[in-house]
Write a structure and sequence with these properties.
Elements (H helix, E strand, L loop, with lengths): L2 E2 L1 H14 L4 H16 L10 H10 L9 E5 L3 E5 L5 H19 L1 E10 L5 H9 L3 E9 L20 E5 L8 E5 L6 H10 L8 E2 L5 E2 L13 E2 L5 H16 L18 E9 L7 H16 L15 H13 L1 E2 L2 H13 L4 H7 L5
Parallel strand pairs: 3-4
Antiparallel strand pairs: 1-12, 2-3, 4-11, 5-6, 5-11, 6-7, 8-9, 8-10
Helix pairs in contact: 1-2, 3-10
């Protein structure tokens, strides 16, 4: 498994995106976002997505150099269309508008529909937190087949429908960033397990007959694949269902159903974001002191394993970011093969990409 310096990996991914028709600024934005996910430890949403992105570019499901268009503007409530553009670009643009409106009105509700895969949702929560704002994000996925089974079901009916909530940092604590798929694991983690030849986590999958399985290959079987399980039984399913409806019915987007699947398939996200300026509700001093006191209280719980202290959301990502920035980003051999194949499909060569990434012989 190669370990690649994050800056060189970013250059390699930017070269592929640019070769796929993106302007330089867009290529860099996409690459920074994807490598940022790897640095945060979320390889499922990192550079391994590039083969799917380039496939969607080639088939027309992903539009290069697209930007958001405003469909509804009621001041604090705005609906945007992503026009099938790179989610890394239109997601950032949507949050820019949301941050501006939250500062003006105290709160903003932003509906983003028809965006190509918007990546790690924590990125958008972090963008709001960096602006001193609280945010919550409900996301669904449509445009390709379902991959997650509802609680008590035996086949897939929706996708991984992530939820994210963030708090801005204080003088004593960095931002708190909660970001998770409502399935037991994200589909990208199953892709990573398959590429590494490793079993899926216990309880994450069921086969096409509804039986538990740890074989990641069942998710790629045709004509009937297996399904991811929701986390927390009925609780994860309930949150997934709410995300499915909030992100579609309140943005003008669509849900994941057979009649909304594209042919050829593409990855389309809809996201409903609620962004709040906490200083319009309480003083900064009170907000910061309450956040700090609560985090200190929780972290003071004696660790069951002294080597594993109590953490809060965002801590694992910060630790991974620190380590991988110094040590490099691990990319398994199969994922790198798929990435270079995507580059070759848009006119680059294996040798060029290996050189850019610092892997040339």
């Amino acid at each position: 498994m190669p370990t690649i310096d994050h800056a060189r990996l970013t250059d390699a991914i930017a070269a592929i995106v640019a070769a796929g028709g993106s302007e330089a600024a867009e290529a860099r934005t996409v690459a920074d976002n994807l490598v940022g996910a790897n640095l945060a430890g979320h390889d499922s949403h990192g550079v391994g997505m590039i083969p799917a992105y380039i496939e969607n570019r080639v088939t027309g499901g992903l539009v290069a150099n697209a930007h958001v268009s405003v469909e509804v503007d009621n001041g604090a409530v705005v609906v945007l269309d992503g026009n099938s553009g790179y989610g890394q670009v239109v997601g950032q643009e949507a949050m820019d508008i949301g941050i501006e409106r939250a500062r003006e009105f105290g709160a903003a509700v932003i509906g983003l529909r028809n965006a190509h895969h918007i990546g790690r949702i924590g990125q958008w929560g972090e963008q709001c937190a960096a602006a001193g704002l609280v945010s919550m994000h409900h996301v669904n996925v449509m445009g390709h087949k379902a991959i997650v089974a509802p609680y008590r079901g035996t086949d897939a009916r929706y996708v991984t429908n992530p939820y994210c909530a963030t708090l801005p940092g204080t003088d004593n604590n960095p931002p708190t960033v909660l970001d998770f798929a409502t399935s037991m694991v994200a589909m990208g983690k199953i892709r990573v397990a398959r590429n590494k030849g490793e079993p899926a986590p216990e309880g994450a999958l069921m086969d096409s007959k509804g039986q538990p399985s740890r074989d990641p290959n069942i998710m790629y079987e045709e004509p009937i694949a297996g399904a991811l399980q929701p986390f927390g039984a009925h609780k994860g399913y309930g949150l997934a269902l709410m995300n499915e409806i909030l992100a579609s019915a309140m943005t003008g987007g669509l849900g994941c159903r057979p009649e909304t699947k594209y042919d050829p398939p593409k990855i389309i996200n809809n996201m409903l974001s609620i962004i709040i300026d906490p200083m319009k509700l309480v003083s900064r001093q009170f907000f910061n002191s309450e956040v700090d006191a609560t985090i200190a209280h929780v972290k003071a719980s004696p660790a069951a394993d002294p080597a594993k202290p109590v953490l809060v959301p965002g801590d694992p990502e910060r630790a991974s970011r620190s380590a991988r920035t110094t040590q490099g980003v691990p990319v398994d051999d199969e994922t790198w093969r798929e990435i270079t194949a995507a580059g070759v499909s848009v006119g680059l060569t294996d040798a060029e990409l290996n050189k850019i990434a610092g892997l040339a012989a």
